[in-house]
Amino acid sequence: MSVERSGPATPGPGSGPAGVPTAIAVSPILSARVRSQDLDRIRAAAPGSRIVNLSVEGLADGPVEDIEVLLRGWLSAEAFDRLIARAPGLRWVHSATSGVERALTPAARDRSITVTNARGVFTRPIAEHVLMLILAISRRLPQLLELQRERTWQPLQGVELRELTIGIVGYGSIGRAVASLAGAFGARVIALRRHPERDAIARGSSDAGPAGSMSAPANDARDADDDFPFTPSPARIVGPDGLHELLAASDIVVLAAPLTAATENMIDEAAIAAMRREAWIINIARGRLVNDDALISALRDHRIGGAALDAFRDEPLPSTSPYYDLGNVIVTPHTAWSSARVLDRSIDLFCENLRRYADGEPLRNVVDPGAGY
Questions:
Q1: Domain 17-121+340-359 homologous superfamily, CATH
Q2: Could you tell me the mean pLDDT of each successive run of 10 residues in the chain, 373 residues long?
Q3: For residues 193 and 362, what is the distance between their CA atoms, to the nearest angstrom?
Q4: Whether the Cβ atoms of residue 162 and residue 185 lie closer than 8 Å to each other
Q5: What residues contact residue 231 under an 8 Å CB cut-off, 6+ apart?
Q6: pTM of the entire predicted model
Q7: What order of strands is seen across the sheet that includes strand 114-116?
Q8: Mapping DSSP to helix (H, G, I), strand (E, B) and coil, where does residue 59 land?
Q9: Taking burial as the number of CB atoms within 10 A of a residue's CB, which of 60, 87, 174, 205 is the most buried?
Q10: Does domain 123-199+234-331 correspond to CATH entry 1.20.140.10?
Q11: What is the edge-to-edge ordering of all strands in the sheet holding 252-255?
Q12: Using CA atoms, how far apart are residues 82 and 80, in angstroms rounded to an integer?
């Protein structure tokens, strides 16, 4: 993806040459340190900007007072708030993750700092991870592996995906990608959206806002890697008040919702009670969407079929966690997002937004602070 800038039609808000930021702070994203080639690409996208490298603890290799933009990867909440206090010109933070609960701090909200996120960067690997789990559950792979360990030859009957109903809680870019992959196998898909009236996804629609604005529409459907050729229309789309209806109708429930005040602990005892006895739940979103005590109790008592969990309230998941001991649980170490291409896509998106910033164009993936995503 090219990040070369043409001459700006509208001057950007940056204080540096031709509207670029005077200084850009960068903290490590997805690895221990930012790669040199990524720093070169950032410099090319914002020629004349000074780059300040931050450690996870917030230690900087240069002055921070004139920082206007932050590419936030690994950075503690305390270090982030210290940077906000020391950088009065900071006006835009790009989160290298899709979840922004660590970027929408009270200090950032008080300053009305624009926050963008990495929506779309991780869509494909996460959707493929979910499909792997759906196939493993339907073809009874955990039980087959247990039989292998026991050296027991016992064929098991699987289920075809076209016999299953997949309930997707959170129908954003990841939810739509899961629907695309599962739908290709013939699965019936139902989905939950915060605004179900937006079920008509306008693919390829313009994300332009007012001229010179930093903000694009908050529910822009274009994503950094939204290249799935076909997303089938779900058989049904419900709003938040339809959660229990979705749970009762689903053989497999996929949690793909953002973590907000409204979604925290949404999978509680009452929600689990609404699920089918043989149903599984897959969580590739945030651990705090789930009430762990309620889920562990249901799994122990076999009140649901099982759980495949990639996100947890406490990470790394402690070795003492009961999840490790339950035979109807698949634990993966928050690795659904991982692929060799995600870091390149992360830098692609940030550099595209740097070009937009300098040209006075609306940024992509602007977060709505009220909604939390």
A1: NAD(P)-binding Rossmann-like Domain (3.40.50.720)
A2: 41 88 94 86 97 94 97 92 96 94 92 96 97 98 96 97 98 96 96 82 38 41 52 89 98 97 97 98 98 98 98 97 98 95 95 96 95 89
A3: 25
A4: yes
A5: 176, 177, 179, 180, 183, 201
A6: 0.87
A7: 50-53, 23-26, 67-72, 92-95, 114-116
A8: coil
A9: 174
A10: no
A11: 236-238, 188-192, 165-169, 252-255, 280-283, 306-309, 329-331
A12: 5
Question: What is the per-residue pLDDT across 177-196, written as a single tens digit (0 to 9) for each?
Answer: 999 999 999 999 999 999 88
* Amino acid, single-letter form, for residue 139: R
Q: Is 25 left (phi over 0), alpha (psi -120 to 50) or beta?
A: beta
Segment 210-221, tens digit of pLDDT: 333 454 433 343
> How deeply is 344 buried, as exposed, middle or buried, from its count of CB atoms within 10 A (0-12, 13-18, 19+)?
middle
Backbone angles phi, psi at 279, to 5 degrees: -75, 150
| Tokens (6 digits) for 10 | 């509208």
CA pair distance 237, 173, nearest whole angstrom? 15
What phi, psi does 34 have (nearest 5°)? -75, 135
Instruction: Give the residue carrying structure tokens 């049904």.
Output: 236
Amino acid letter, 23: A
